[in-house]
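just leaving the lab so this will be short. what follows is a protein written twice so to speak, once as letters and once as structure tokens for the fold. can you read through it and tell me how you think this chain folds. thanks a lot i owe you, the record is right below.

___
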Amino acid sequence: MIDGTDFQVVGVVEKPKGGFGMGNQDRRVLIPFNTFKKIYPSSDEINMRVQAYPGQLDQMVDEVTEILRRRRNVPYDGKNNFSVNTAAQEVEEFHKIMIMVYLGTMVLSAIGLLIGGVGVMNIMLVSVTERTREVGLRKALGARKRDIAFQFLVEALVLTFAAGAVGLLVSAGLLALLTPKVKKLMGSVN
């Protein structure tokens, strides 16, 4: 029974090996297209999958496009009111989206690093101005400018790496805490 309509099972499809966008195949049912239109007359978006013989993908796309144009009464010089996509096109589109995500991540990371650098610079500036007596004492005892600069640089590096280590530990803890919940949620979606 599908949405209150009785159907007779006439066969079972072999379980696919997986692939891009396959999802959970155990929850899918194949019914004739005309039956689908009778049960769901208000459906205005329909997706179909067509499989081509090896080496005949372009021919299959042309044939599907021609059939759909005829069925949908698209004029000879008119624009298609449907789209035909191959798995390769979907993978390419996925890669374009991922490139945009990578670029966005890079920009946000660069901004974060810039803000972090300015923060470290300000903290070290305050540290130097608060410790003028120490700097003066070290100079009086013979310390050179580069010795003093090296001291503050090492101090900044230690603080920065310590903060980075704390950030990584907090991130790893959150990841370990949230991963089972996300897996459970994703399992319920499929």
